[in-house]
């Protein structure tokens, strides 16, 4: 008999709401040594009218819950958006010499319209009396504004999802916005409505490239995924300058959607919603529902087999600095590192014989298999092979390196320096107690939480 619904599945260092539902991360920003995380939120562990929850952290691992930042109003529910710190007080919302934090969000009512709110204590937010700052009565799906500094025009730019494309806007004061360009739908080989865009620069080989993230709501068998494009930004709009096909996925796993990056950090740090939309409401987690990925540091890699690829690795280390002796697992927060040169299967196993498998198969693909990892019967999609038995071709040949981070009910597998990432939720009926090499040969290290 399964113990789902009884066992505590709440992760230790992956963010969850204290109580209730969360989905898209919003307003990720960094100021005065503090990381701010806002998220789509409802006080019950099921979907409902969206608020913005708010939490802060000094290390991206341990979070303090703050009061709800935004609640529904006459314009609608509080859908996704972003946050920036207006250091020059161009908006005029500052007070007492304190730069304002400005939230830009979608009010989801009869129409989706863009609004702003502000704060100088970074805890209590006031909605702007002139909302909406970008009105809309024509486009059905018009949401998820991501604001960023414009290095060419000066001031601010914003990427906004507009049904099957991204619109770009510019502003000098965060109140008044003008449209400057569009990208899409060309290059989109994943049917669906575009959501949660993010545009930012990264450098590879001394050359600056701009990366555009787009999450896709899809009604196909595979459902929602997140893709990315690389190219240039001229201050007005983004242009893709690399081949569109094959589609470039941010994550090969299914439990990573609607992710965006932090504003004002020295390096580019990403966080995603680590629950698949199709089974999110059914997960056996009790008073809370859904979690976020680990924060990940993004980079670009020019790979020999895959060309230019977005790479992601954990931005923080939650474990002892040296590997432990042996492969026994005494905690439910740990990291397994494995290295090899041929096919190999690694396994995490518990006393009930449930096991989570990962490694490199005979075809040279990285794989992650949760089909025998624990409870699967709470939702038909969760246990379906297409969502549970994943594999993807590597972008390198020869020796491989894998790094699996496990936190009670969420695992993140990083391969070959993060050029392949798999994020999957798992719900073992008992804790995993042993890591092992199930097939082939590999050098394995386990890093335990302190």
Structure description:
The protein has 450 residues and is mostly beta strands. Helix content is 2%, strand content 48%. It is built from two helices and 31 strands. The strands form seven sheets. The chain has a five-stranded mixed sheet with strand order 4-3-2-1-19, with no helix packed on it. The chain has a five-stranded antiparallel sheet with strand order 29-28-27-22-31, with no helix packed on it. The longest helix has 4 residues, at 380-383.
Describe the structure concisely for a colleague:
This protein is mainly β. The chain has helices spanning 380-383, 385-388; strands at residues 20-31, 34-42, 51-57, 64-70, 77-85, 101-108, 112-119, 126-127, 142-149, 156-162, 166-171, 178-183, 193-204, 207-217, 225-233, 238-240, 257-261, 269-273, 288-289, 296-303, 307-314, 333-340, 344-350, 355-360, 365-369, 389-393, 400-407, 410-415, 420-425, 432-440, 443-448.
């Amino acid at each position: 008999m399964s113990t789902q619904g009884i066992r505590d599945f709440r992760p230790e260092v992956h963010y969850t709401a204290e109580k209730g539902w969360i989905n898209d991360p919003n307003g990720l920003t960094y100021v005065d040594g503090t990381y701010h995380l806002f998220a789509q939120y409802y006080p019950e562990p099921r979907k409902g009218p969206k608020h913005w929850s708010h939490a802060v952290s000094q290390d991206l691992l341990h979070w303090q819950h703050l009061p709800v930042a935004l609640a529904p109003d006459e314009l609608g529910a509080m859908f996704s958006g972003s946050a920036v710190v207006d250091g020059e007080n161009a908006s005029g919302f500052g007070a007492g010499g304190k730069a304002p934090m400005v939230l830009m969000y979608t009010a989801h009512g009869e129409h989706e319209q863009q609004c702003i709110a502000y704060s100088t204590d970074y805890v209590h937010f006031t909605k702007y009396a002139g909302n909406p700052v970008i009105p809309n009565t024509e486009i059905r799906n018009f949401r998820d504004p991501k604001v960023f500094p414009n290095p060419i025009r000066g001031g601010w730019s914003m990427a906004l999802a507009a049904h099957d494309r991204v619109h770009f806007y510019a502003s000098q004061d965060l109140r008044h916005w003008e449209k400057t360009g569009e990208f899409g739908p060309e290059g989109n080989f994943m049917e669906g409505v575009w959501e949660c865009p993010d545009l930012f620069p990264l450098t590879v080989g001394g050359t600056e490239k701009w990366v555009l993230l787009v999450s896709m709501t899809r009604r196909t068998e595979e459902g929602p995924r997140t893709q990315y494009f690389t190219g240039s930004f001229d201050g007005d709009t983004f242009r893709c300058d690399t081949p569109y096909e094959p589609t470039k996925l941010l994550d090969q796993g299914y439990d990573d959607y609607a992710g965006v990056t932090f504003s004002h950090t020295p390096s580019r740090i990403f966080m995603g919603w680590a629950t698949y939309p199709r089974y999110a409401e059914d997960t056996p987690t009790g008073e809370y529902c859904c979690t976020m990925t680990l924060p990940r540091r993004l980079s670009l890699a020019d790979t020999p087999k895959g060309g230019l690829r977005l790479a992601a690795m954990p931005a923080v280390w939650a474990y002892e600095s040296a590997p432990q002796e042996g492969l026994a697992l005494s905690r439910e927060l740990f990291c397994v590192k494995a290295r090899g040169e041929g096919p190999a299967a690694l396994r995490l196993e518990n006393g009930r014989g449930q096991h989570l498998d990962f490694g490199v198969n005979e075809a040279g693909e990285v794989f992650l298999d949760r089909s025998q990892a624990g409870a699967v019967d709470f939702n038909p999609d969760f246990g379906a092979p297409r969502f549970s038995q994943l594999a993807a071709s590597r972008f390198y040949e020869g020796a491989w390196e894998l790094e699996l981070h496990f936190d009670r009910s969420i695992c993140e597998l990083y391969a070959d320096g993060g050029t392949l990432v798999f994020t999957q939720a798992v719900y073992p009926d008992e804790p995993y107690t042993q890591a092992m090499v199930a097939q082939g040969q590999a050098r394995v290290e386990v890093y335990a939480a302190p």
